[in-house]
Amino acid sequence: MTETTERRYWLMKSEPDAYSWDDLNAEGEGTWDGVRNHLAARNLRTMAKGDCAFFYHSNIGLEIVGIMTISKPGLTDPNDPTGKWAAVKVKPVKPLKRAITLKEIKATPELAEMDLLRQSRLSVSEVRPTEWEFILAMSKRKLPQG
Prior knowledge:
The protein is of the alpha+beta class. It has helices at residues 21-27, 38-46, 102-106, 115-118, 129-140, and strands at residues 9-14, 30-32, 52-57, 63-76, 86-101, 124-127. The mean pLDDT is 94.
């Protein structure tokens, strides 16, 4: 029997004044660490190489700005002396054609069940494939004027 693993999608939040999309691009590969919430850490542990994630600027901007891929899953947070917290390595894939704001997401009925909205304090959350595709399509459309 062969095992097939389906790609999963995630949203990962970072405060841009601490670590931004531009910082990740400058590094080429970054370590996603510092997560100290049990559910978010479990999400990090669930990630597989090749999974994709939206890079979300939290606190400043409040918007999805890019796509990254999980390059090395299953790491222990290098800043955790207890060894109980998780980390992953990520690589930038591409910026979104247009950033998608939290305001837009909240105003979109098709995204009403996103973990980003239902568990707003969670720094690493899963994104359903339909939500992923919908956000990608939104990023390719211009904002309505008005």
